[in-house]
Design goal:
five-stranded mixed sheet, 5 strands, about 35% helix, globular
Length: about 120
């Protein structure tokens, strides 16, 4: 039996091979994002009611996909989407960070009904 092909999107990891990445996966679709873009986006938190939430919280608390012992973990899609939307329109160090954020947001919207896995490698 032939293995199913996966759809890998490396636009935000090309040129950084071998460096840490965050992989968003839903079913056969995977988006690879260089950790530098994630740091650029989430290092200065945008708070919700004075608190961190979603991907920002996981990033700063080193939990979920940012935990040292995480290989794969499910994420709260609604929480991640709300959190990521708060960063839209910000200026980042790398112009690609805005594009990577857009890709994450679009991925979260598209994959809303699927099992969501995020992992850092």
């Amino acid at each position: 039996m032939e293995a199913e092909k996966q759809d890998h999107d490396y636009r935000f990891y090309k040129g950084f091979e071998g460096e840490p990445e965050l992989i968003f996966q839903s079913g056969k679709r995977l988006i690879h994002i260089w950790e530098g873009y994630i740091t650029d986006i989430f290092s200065e938190p945008v708070l919700s009611d004075g608190r961190m939430s979603g991907l920002t919280l996981d990033y700063h608390e080193l939990i979920g996909p940012f935990s040292d012992d995480c290989v794969e973990c499910a994420i709260n899609v609604d929480e991640y989407l709300k959190d990521c939307n708060r960063y839209e329109g910000r200026l980042f160090k790398y112009k690609e960070s805005s594009l990577a954020l857009d890709a994450i947001i679009n991925w979260l919207k598209e994959c809303h009904d699927f099992e969501i896995i995020a992992r850092v490698s």
